Amino acid sequence: MKPSEQTRSLGRKIAGIAVLLAGFLLAATLCFGSSPNGSQIPSIFKPQSTPADSIFRLSLLVLTITGLIFIIVFSLLVYSVVKFRKRGGDDGREPPQVYGSNQVELAWTVIPVLVVLVLFFATARVIHSIQDAPKPPGTIEVIAIGHQFWWEFRYPALGVVTANELHVPVSDSSNPSPTFITLLSADTDHSFWVPRLAGKTDLIPNRENHTWIDPHETGLYLGQCAQYCGTQHAKMLLRVYVDSREQFDQWVEDEKKPAVVNDQVGEGRRIFETTACLNCHAVSGTVADGHFGPDLTHLMSRATIASGAAPNTPEQLKIWIRNPDSIKPGSLMPAMKLNEKDLDALTAYLVTLR
Amino acid sequence: MSSVAVARPSNESAWVLPSRGRVGMFTLIAAESAVFTIFVVAYIYYIGKSLSGPTPKDLLELPIFSTVCLLSSSLTIHLAVRALRQGRVGVFGFWWFLTMALGAIFLVATGREWHHLIYEKGLTISTNLFGTTYYSLVGLHAFHVTVGLLAIALAMIFTLLGKVKPEHSERLDVFSLYWHFVDVVWVIVFTVVYVIGR
Amino acid sequence: MASDTIALGIADPDARPIGERLHDWVVTVDHKKLGILYILYSLLMLVIGGVEATIMRIQLIVPHNHFVSPQVFNRMFTMHGTTMIFFVAMPILFGFGTYLIPLMIGTRDMAFPRLNAFSFWMTAFGGLLLYFSFIGGNGLYGAGNAPDVGWFAYAPLTSRAFSPGHSTDFWTLAILVSGIGSIGTAVNFITTILCMRCPGMTLGKMPLLAWLNLVTGGLVILAVSPLTAAQIMLSIDRFLGGHFFDTQAGGAAVLWMHFFWIFGHPEVYVLIIPCFAFASEIIPVFSRKPIFGYPVMVGASVAIGFISMSVWAHHMFTVGMSSYGNAFFTATTMVIAVPTGIKIFNWIGTMWGGKIQFRAPMLFCIGFLFQFLIAGLTGIMLGASPFNWQLGNSYFVVAHFHYVIVGGILFTVFGAFYYWFPKMSGRMYSEALAKWHFWLFLIGFHLTFDFMHIPGMLGMPRRIYTYEPGRGWEIWNLIVTIGVFFQIAGVLVFVVNLLWSLLKGEPAGNDPWDAWTLEWSTTSPPPDYNYATIPVVESRRPLWDLKHPEDPDWKYE
Fold this sequence. Notes:
The structure holds three protein chains of three kinds. Chain A has helices at 3-32, 50-83, 102-131, 245-256, 266-274, 277-280, 314-322, 340-350, and strands at residues 140-147, 150-155, 160-163, 165-169, 179-185, 190-193, 201-203, 209-213, 219-225, 237-243, 304-305, 310-311. By secondary structure, chain A is an alpha+beta fold.
């Protein structure tokens, strides 16, 4: 290859790398740059809870160290590729044949070992602080049970059972009220991941796992199942509502009540209780006590249905009951094969379950 | 034509490398050991974890007789190969036959134990965790004994046909490494299943 | 000469009938033909795996897309992963090893030629079994198709209850069968390298490719066997009613994970170590210097082999191990970075002070160095377990491992292709087409896999057939998918280059690169018997000694 071609090719190579690096930096700025707190982007770099925060701060250290290593080694690489390329007027002789150097090998063994030690100790501290955290008196206990493809949430001490949308109180560092979640599974492996609140922990059948969050700001935090659990793994979404203390207490009060009774939707309720619905679903205060599917006692208190797959409106409810596969193909709820009249009545009943 | 990198005459020590058969057999044994290790780990992990059904303590008795047979077959195979190396084909045939018989006795005894466990005690591979891990581990070992026994039987046939000669002793020695391995595995399985696990 | 050439499109006046030549290939036990068979098989599977990836990326180009159903998507990621690992990466690396090892250590064939053939055909049959699932997976039970349980098939999703039909069984048996082939190849590699080196070639004088394939062989023996055991256990569960991974009967899902990753982690070293070998052969030749620090390179490789057996649970940081467990595996994962980094430094040291020629093999190896550095660093990030609790099972991990596999492994494989293609075929490839291949593929690779890290950091988990809008993931998925088309273009150019060069390439001669290891002393392609007289060597670079008798290597080693 002619020398000028070589230089040009080299120039192109470096230019290409520079463009990509610039693009990457731009991307990084875009996603790490400030955005309103209410944004729904579940970025791990916008922590709002102590576990997520500890991880974030560890990540800064790790990124700094790895970034430095990258810059140093990348520079060495670029330098050697540029400086030691075969030039135009080359005399054709082989360069000095160097076989190695013990001092250099020692240096670039010892320094990485030291780096590894620093990283390891920093990491071990964070592992311990998150996994072995104590439970203060104001702790809210939740049991999360993973199902194919929805989340069951139970608050044993408060007598609340709900599904798919988790409500927790905001936690103030002077009087902490974190939420400790016990993670169980009814079928296969799942994983609970709400990036702004904590790292993910798996839900594994026949095994009890634990995680905790102590959100510092109210708001809605998004997440989803992060361990492949079958066909509709992608739509096993999570919504965590961090409420103020008063809002949370009010929510608990509302959830504890049995289902609203409204005589105008008696027909729909009759359909619910005499067809297969009650085999899978529970409505507290009625004969429906199935546990395969989500508890529907306060269905209308939720913003979404089918674990986030559709918004909770009467139209969507109808579509869901008529044919779940049209919203979430592969979900385990069967199409109920009701005629339109029955479907309307049933939906009218469900809409009253506030 | 290929050109050759001829260097100055090297120093006169002979260029000796390990025998291919031995190295190959050792790597195979290493691979099989890794497989057995996983089954042993599963067995140990599940000790005491069955939710229902019979336990080892209820059902298992030490298989002393079959163990003695199998372990003695290691001795007999060693004597067989040594005899062949020394050119005594008849003696080789005798010890080889004994090896085959002892291996066969082991398999028959295992079969009888299993028959008893399945038909009289109701323990199958699907009964509980103990059943699954027991039959898998002991069965995997018995499978390896069977494969070895088939090879021994084949060699026996060749011996009876007069085809086995002293120059084959190296190959049969390599094969005997496999047989010794099977015996060592049995020692481990015996200890884990019949001693520790009960 | 006529009967010795590999009959692959080279016009030959006294060629035998095509039927006879094909029959030769089917029954061959010659390591060179088997090596080429492995490589061609892998290339075919690469294209199929690439189609599966493209289907997934098109589905993910926008949220709530309807290009394929969730069932099809889930089969795609399962088949893509399984195909690429077991039927592309492993066979192509075994193929290069099978072809090169006997030539580079100065012998005529592998230790066990028939076992060699058996291993290839077992691997090929495994692939056939896996793909037969597309038509046969419906079985007698009327459910299932291709497997859709993910390439690591976590229990209890793989139990009969959650995966009815036979799709999972095809997966299990395909891997079991090809695993037997892999173990056979490993037995051959180890035995050949230990027992058949030419006189004068002590372990300290053999090419790094031989050393690294020795370590790889050891890892295959120790790692594929646990997978074989786990597959047998899964089959016992699925066919005989066993309870190894049956959580209803007290079994542990986590046990499958341990067994799988005890295989899975060393497996990735099985994949990358032969690529270190390619880099260690190519970089010195195109820098015109010997490899920097040969003994340290050997030591580092062996260390990597050992340490790799102790890091497996870094794939399991989220399953709820104790803080001590997590800390232990964080420690070992970080420790393995040390010998790996040493190797990168040694490659840079090789280029330092040299006269670098930017031919295609070297371009791909420079790309490898740059990309493997980044991949190693994202690996360190993932090794810090709390960071892993956020990034594990997300697109960050997918980006990381593709960075290693495509950016590291595939790049060096392309480099190896171009480097040894003249030797294997007797023809030179087109350098211009090779450069097009390099640049198109480089751009596509970076578009796809650089930007793929970002959705992971923004909360996008893996193995989802669609995603919600409004989470900030859309733009990145779009860019990632666009990159795929550049990669496809690059691979197309590569295939065209291969075919064109086979038919029309310039005759290569014995030693087009002015290289120093034994394979360059034979004709291109080598005769069936490799060497008429077994060579005797005195140093690590026997051909350097021949070409520079006034300054031979053995004076300095």
